[in-house]
Amino acid sequence: MTTATNSEQHAPGAKGFAQVKTLRSSPDAVLAAFQTTEAISAWWGPTTGSAVEGGRFRADFGEGRYHEIVVGSVEPRRVAWTSAAAPHHHGEWEGTTMVFELAEAGEGTRLSFRHAGLVPALECYDNCSAGWTQVLASLVSYVDTGKGHPYRLDAAR
């Protein structure tokens, strides 16, 4: 099992999983999906805590699987999160950063996502990158249609 926690790997600008999505909705509508735990719950999974800048929230996936996130910034065109805990990833997420950058794209938004520190050398990379692909598609659906496809604790039973 690889449990890389190299601080260089997790530094701002570090390499990691990246994906770009185009949404029909405005950057303000996309930003709203990050501003409350209720909104995050609608596209990622059951979330409690505070999604405001400086806040901390927890997305719960049952059976001891959760992500505890510290909100570094919520700006009009950039949201940055740092992973404080994700025990089911054996320390591989701790200290990694997730950055969502928003730019106008015609009448919609270009969302550039990077999970700095989520690199192929990590044991969780394949599952985590597939997970982010699903989560980002859920985010797009939530913002553009009002209906995301988040993880549901009741559906896992």
Compact summary:
This protein is α+β, with helices and mostly antiparallel strands and 157 residues long. The protein is built from four helices and seven strands; from the N terminus they run H-E-H-H-E-E-E-E-E-E-H.
What does this structure look like?
With 157 residues, the protein is of the alpha+beta class. The chain has a single domain, classed as START domain (Alpha-D-Glucose-1,6-Bisphosphate, Chain A, domain 4). Helices cover 24% and strands 33% of the residues. The chain has a 7-stranded antiparallel beta sheet with strand order 1-7-6-5-4-3-2. The N terminus is likely disordered.
Q: Give me the number of helical elements.
A: 4
Instruction: Give the SSE string.
Output: HEHHEEEEEEH
Percent in helix = 10-25%
Q: Termini distance?
A: 28 Å
